[in-house]
């Protein structure tokens, strides 16, 4: 068995073991959640991406729903869901329009979906419906999860998740299909198997892990954010050939899904964090650092991996939450929530 095959099998065994994180209530602390709401959630339930022109998007609404569930805040969950349902779930296929701009009329400025946003929304609805005994949320979760069949394809002998319904497929571009491995929210798939059983979520998960194992490219052994899978794996044309902001989520998603595979997680941790306490945006071809990120919401991700692998305590500055920008703040709370539930020893 090759190193790469061992890596894929090790991750897959954890992901398909049925782990469904988030069942425990209030793993996001009340003070942290209150600070997050003050910084990023409007009175209408809109999650504001203040690092991206104060727009909102399906990803942010999904994260907001998930964090509200993890905080045990049903009223805020309902508010965020109301905005999401009325302002983004406007497409005819059951998926959400991805981009909402408060400065534009109409506010939806791009009606294509973003598959990670749809997964996050459906996952949060499914968790809340299951644990709060609310059938209407479970039903909505199942409808969105079922609609994701529109972006799941069989390509090159594997099941893939397209980033959106249009623009990424074989017929859309010369190097299509294009995928983004950070869109595989692995922790959601076991739950989806119960609410949208007509889709083969197990194969999608298995093939996503296999693609990840095969896409560790360049000197730093990291996956490109946007990846062409046509004929061979390579950075997609027209996108920066880099391990970028979206890709920072990959090890977090693996850990939250239950992976403890040392080979995969070590490769990602070491490649993305060449300098202790920082995370790097990395050029795939050269392995050079294009940008260093010291925000606690990014820095906690390699620290989370070290906790999972060898019980290394989380550095004290990363244990406390202070909002910075929407995206790293979201990743920070998701990391702290996982640690509080599964590895509290790393927080002391």
TrEMBL record:
SUPFAM superfamilies in UniProt: Six-hairpin glycosidases (SSF48208)
One record GO biological process: cellulose catabolic process
GO molecular function, one term: cellulase activity
Keyword tags: Carbohydrate metabolism, Cellulose degradation, Glycosidase, Hydrolase, Polysaccharide degradation, Signal
Documented EC number(s): 3.2.1.-
Broad EC category: hydrolase
Domain of life: Bacteria
Catalytic activity field: Endohydrolysis of (1->4)-beta-D-glucosidic linkages in cellulose, lichenin and cereal beta-D-glucans
Coiled coil: none
Catalytic residues (UniProt): 116
InterPro entries reported for this sequence: 6-hairpin_glycosidase_sf (IPR008928), 6hp_glycosidase-like_sf (IPR012341), Glyco_hydro_8 (IPR002037), Glyco_hydro_8_CS (IPR019834)
Family per similarity comment: Belongs to the glycosyl hydrolase 8 (cellulase D) family.
The protein's name in its UniProt record: Glucanase
